[in-house]
Amino acid sequence: CKTTAVKETTSAENQSSLKMNNPIITDKYTADPAAIVHKDKVYLYAGHDVPEKGENTYRMNEWLVYSSSDMVNWEEHPVPLKPTDFAWAKGDAWAGQVIERNGKFYWYVTVSHGTIHGKSIGIAVSDSPTGPFKDALGKALITNDMTTKTKISWDDIDPTVIIDDDGQAYLFWGNTVCNYVKLKENMIEMDGPMQTIDLPNFTEAPWIHKRKGWYYLSYAYQFPEKIAYAMSKSVNGPWEYKGILNEVAGNSNTNHQAIIDFKGKSYFIYHNGSIPTDGGSFRRSVCVDRLYYNPDGTMKRVVMTSE
Ligand code: FUB
């Protein structure tokens, strides 16, 4: 599924990314990675794919958390959160992201609501990046009946969050339409109207990050999903589309990225269906590859070492 143009990149950069041992988790199927750097470690959060072989549905009953000091060796911690930890939810551990504020770790996640049709976004909180996490709000922050623009039940998914340098937090999310809203300092209430961002071929999986004065909004593009991105000098836009960052990742219709800097290097974390024989679009595996920036701040296409 990958273009040869990407494979043709044979630079020192490529060589240095050949040691990632992809996929990084092989005893479980893992999807929708999110990651944070805390103290001297990276914490990786993922959904646990558990459908039977050949079952073409997202069956995800819990999230998983791993930590690493080197991006190569990963330690699994006890299950930090399940959709059933939200009394108002009925299942589906879809994508989310953790962020730290004032010593607490807030985890914005997608789940299926128990009484409101469709997917919703909830928030869990913990004193530790490995949890255990518990419901921070007692209800969904965003539900399908608040945002009916696309009239699908899964348009309120895939939250990603950033705290800007001035302390203002923002939540981005969506399927088909990319939404964003300010969050109050308590991180569990919206602080203003929901707004939308026009991005070419936006499918889902937004990831917001800031680096050296640039804001980056990467997202799943078309279907099967590539990862594309836009850049801006402000978290409120305007966003300038910059093109494809990652091609369709092998043997999976979805792709879902996290982008971090750790110990002086940049990383692109994603999933594919690369575990031989049994992997696929619903039995996914998290992979890591190096990410490189150009002098003008744009990002180079990711060279996947996972296929
Ligand atoms: O894993 C379930 C859904 O598939 C996620 O929320 C999307 O980003 C896609 O990866």
UniProtKB/TrEMBL annotation:
<keyword id="KW-0858">Xylan degradation</keyword>
<dbReference type="GO" id="GO:0016787">
    <property type="term" value="F:hydrolase activity"/>
</dbReference>
<keyword id="KW-0732">Signal</keyword>
<dbReference type="InterPro" id="IPR006710">
    <property type="entry name" value="Glyco_hydro_43"/>
</dbReference>
<protein>
    <submittedName>
        <fullName>Glycoside hydrolase family 43 protein</fullName>
    </submittedName>
</protein>
<dbReference type="Pfam" id="PF04616">
    <property type="entry name" value="Glyco_hydro_43"/>
</dbReference>
<comment type="similarity">
    <text>Belongs to the glycosyl hydrolase 43 family.</text>
</comment>
<keyword id="KW-0119">Carbohydrate metabolism</keyword>
<dbReference type="InterPro" id="IPR052176">
    <property type="entry name" value="Glycosyl_Hydrlase_43_Enz"/>
</dbReference>
<keyword id="KW-0624">Polysaccharide degradation</keyword>
<keyword id="KW-0326">Glycosidase</keyword>
<dbReference type="InterPro" id="IPR023296">
    <property type="entry name" value="Glyco_hydro_beta-prop_sf"/>
</dbReference>
<keyword id="KW-0378">Hydrolase</keyword>
